[in-house]
Each structure stands twice: as C-alpha cells, then as structure tokens.
Write a structure and sequence with these properties.
With about 190 residues, the chain is an alpha+beta fold. The protein contains two helices and eight strands; from the N terminus they run H-H-E-E-E-E-E-E-E-E. A hairpin with a 2-residue loop joins strand 1 and strand 2. It is elongated and about 115 Å long. About 5% of the residues have low confidence.
Length: about 190
C-alpha cells in the first residue's frame, strides 16, 4: 500500500530551514505586511494645507520712512569693507570759490598703523639667535635699536619672546603673536 503524499503549503525552501531561521522569516514577513497596511491605510493623499504668506501689515496713513543701517556682521571680518568706496566725492561747492588743496601726507599700510593716526609703525627684524649662558637668545632690532632677549623675557617695552629655535622665534606684541626667522622683518 502506498502512503498518501503529504503536501505542504510552505515552499520547499522554507521547509528546509531550521526552526530559528523559519521564525525570523515569519517575523520579517509580518513586518512587511504591517508596513504595507500602514501605507495603504494612512491616507497618504488629501489636500495640502494652504501656504500662508505671513501677517498682512496695513500701512498707516502717516507712514514715515526710517533709514536702516546694514546689519552688523560681527568681528569675523576685519579690515576694509570691499563694498564701500575708497574715495567719496565731496559735494561741489559754490561756484567762484577755489577748491581747497590738501596738505600733509597720506600714509598707507607701510607708513603707519593704517588708521591715519600719528603713531608710526614699529619695524621688528630678527637679526640672530645664538646660545648665551646655556640658553638661546635672540637679537632683535626694533625701530633701529638692537635688543637681546631669551624665552620669557620682555624687550622694547611691548615685545616678549615666547619661544626660540636655532633659526626662528615666536614673539608677542600686546596680545598678537607672530613668528620671525633670521633676516625676516615685520611692521607692528
């Protein structure tokens, strides 16, 4: 007698899986079915809410224009504003009077502090670095006068030596740090 052939509803691949793998496959199938149902039943369509353009301001009958200044950009940008003109033309004077002639001198970046003041720039040149008393000492020229200083020492009133190597040094002027190698010069 022949036994009836047993047919399974599961595909052959699922029948051959271990119980743990079969449980994971069933859980995955349930998650996929739930995701599809969620997407189908969530509506998904409908009308979009109207876009509001913000509050409507009614102009008053006595409106006055107030000049606005450009917004401040903070201290991230230093120096000259590239969008401001370098020279502003003066309004023409009454006819018949001679135009005034400028006197004095115009100084720029290398002439003084760049602000048009009367304080000249300080020229600093690193002349030499050598061992003196077992420590490195720098010979620095400030506005034509030579100073010798080691690490941590102050010279020319406002300068301090931060660190020295055999050919370069790091200095501080006020709160500004700068580096020079032998023979280099900077204006402060």
């Amino acid at each position: 007698m022949t036994e009836p052939v047993r047919t399974s509803r599961l595909p052959a691949r699922l029948r051959n899986l271990a119980p743990r793998e079969r449980a994971l496959a069933i859980i995955l199938a349930i998650i996929v079915v739930l995701a599809v149902l969620f997407l189908l039943l969530s509506g998904g369509g409908g009308t979009l809410p109207p876009i509001s353009s913000g509050p409507i301001v009614q102009p008053s009958s006595s409106a006055t224009a107030t000049p606005t200044s450009p917004p401040e950009t903070g201290q991230a940008f230093e120096g000259k504003d590239p969008f401001q003109p370098l020279v502003v033309a003066a309004a023409p004077g009454p006819s018949g009077s001679p135009a005034p002639t400028p006197t004095g001198s115009i100084t720029g970046v290398n002439g003084n502090n760049g602000g048009g003041g009367s304080t000249p720039a300080t020229t600093v040149t690193l002349l030499d670095i050598r061992k003196q008393g077992g420590k490195l000492a720098a010979t620095v020229e400030v506005n034509g006068k030579d100073y010798t200083a080691s690490e941590g020492q102050t010279f020319a009133t406002n300068f301090r030596v931060v660190s020295l190597s055999s050919s370069c040094g790091t200095f501080v002027f006020g709160d500004e740090r700068f580096s020079l190698c032998i023979g280099q010069q900077v204006n402060k």
